[in-house]
Amino acid sequence: MRIYAAAVYLFLYIPIGIIALFSFSAGRNASEFAGFSLKWYGIALHNPFVVEALRTSFTVAASSAILAAVFGTMAALALQGMTGRIKVLFDALIYIAVMIPGIVIGISTLIAIVTVFGWLNPLIAAVWPWDGPAPQLAMGLGSLIAAHTLFNMALVIIIVRARIAGMDRSFTEASADLYATPFGTFRQITLPLILPGILAGFLLSFTFSFDDFIIAFFVAGANTTLPIYVFSSIRRGVTPEINAIGTMVLTLSLILLVTAQGFLQRKRKG
Amino acid sequence: MRPKLINRLLLAPAGIWFLAMLVLPLAVVLVFSFGERGQSGGYVPAFTFAQYLNLPARWKAFENTLTLAPVGTLIVLLIAYPLAYFLALRANPKWRTLLLILVIVPFWTSILIRSYAWIFILGGRGIPALLDMLGLHNLRLINTPFAVLVGIVYGYLPLMVFPIFVSLERLDKRLLEASADLGSPPWRSFLQITLPLSLPGMATGCMLVFILLMGEFLIPAMLGGGKVFFVGNALVDLFLQSRNWAFGSAVAVALVVVMLVTVTIYMRAMTRWGNGRDDVSLM
After folding, report:
1. pLDDT tens column, A183-237
2. Which of residues 209-248 of B touch A (CB under 8 A)?
3. What is the CATH number of the domain that holds B233?
4. Residues 56-115 of A with CB under 8 A from B
5. Domains delineated in chain A
6. Is A152 left (phi over 0), alpha (psi -120 to 50) or beta?
7. Residue B274: its pLDDT value, please?
8. Cα(B51)–Cα(B65) distance, rounded to whole angstroms?
């Protein structure tokens, strides 16, 4: 039994380990290990395409994680103790947002945005009061952030609601009994109690957005995120540079995940 | 009780987001699936079932998906169950949380990079090169259904382990003690107590893995090399290469319908087992 478990862990971690190992190879070829070196990290980080893709990915991940954390928490707070049609509707929407495959979200967002912008652009041009050409709405960072925020918001709502459900009601009741204003109770009792959930949701959202390929592939417009860059590079062939980028991406995800887990574990203890 | 107005204001941004980025796009896909393809791609409004009648043109993608997704799910289940069993009932409680986190973490890291690792391992200079030294020549692993299945197992194992672990951990250990006291051998206790009581966890895991596999694109694209393609790959082709939005929408709707049917069967089964819904979070 133990040997079996160990074998499964090896299966899970050896491929990641191999990527990391070869990323430190000094060799020119991706599949030969020729002495330890950080040279491919240097090459990757001096590649303007990589730097640009990294910047795009960070911008998108940070923006969508912030939007999701704020709006998701607001929704989770409102849904707390709510009953009736609106709650059922929201439950269904959250469920659909999480369950629909990323590829369907990607294509449907693509054609919806192209269609809506196709209607709006002539309209804007018609009412544009200033000289010169009217601005054209197009797919880009905005559409990508909006698409990622959808999934992330559902994620934050699920996590924060679980946190609210596990909260001791007597604190808020005591606070109200002691004549705290609703806002005061929220700021001094509720918020500190659900904050770990919000932070965990933020970090998971960031990770999801940073790693997402399929939605970005459809709605990023002319922008290249890091996963899109990696995907198209792999199609051109396996290079040590990809190993270095891959290792950096995995390391970043691991740090974010371990931090998120730390926040979530606190829930179980306290 | 807080006034209703505040609740509405709090819900408004999320509601608008769901409406604009989920309901509207899905509605557009549904409408487009009854339309026609434009001269140079895109979409022309119409009301026709032609796209749906044309679905057999992409039958191969559905066939691949509907064979490799269940087979993949089954293999994942067979590999995940003993591990979940070990974690829930045999592992040292001191290490249990850490071991569980170690299973879940890969699921949240980039599937792109993880599939890439297998291109590396199964590709010409990886395992085939090793086997070559052992006398097995010209073995081709990458771009085969086998490679896709390896990628599937690698990608989705964590998702299966977790719900099974939860159902095994909740299992009342006294039942096993009672069974042993009454003289039943361990294998019998397993078959009559442990296995049936972990069925809801297995069902949840299978459903999650199966549903995500139905929409898979990256693993077949990376490890199947265009030879083993899923519905997801057909969708990418239809929307980005041939720009046939109407037909692509019909394929997407068909995919979602197959998924909904799966979820419905799962929900029915769960209510019949009377265990209700296992609330399994992925983190």
Report:
1. 888 888 888 889 989 999 999 999 999 999 999 999 998 899 999 999 999 888 7
2. 211-212, 214-218, 222, 232, 235-236, 239-240, 245, 248
3. 1.10.3720.10
4. 70-72, 74-75, 77-79, 82, 86, 90, 93, 96-97, 99-105, 107-112, 115
5. 52-269 (1.10.3720.10)
6. alpha
7. 57
8. 20
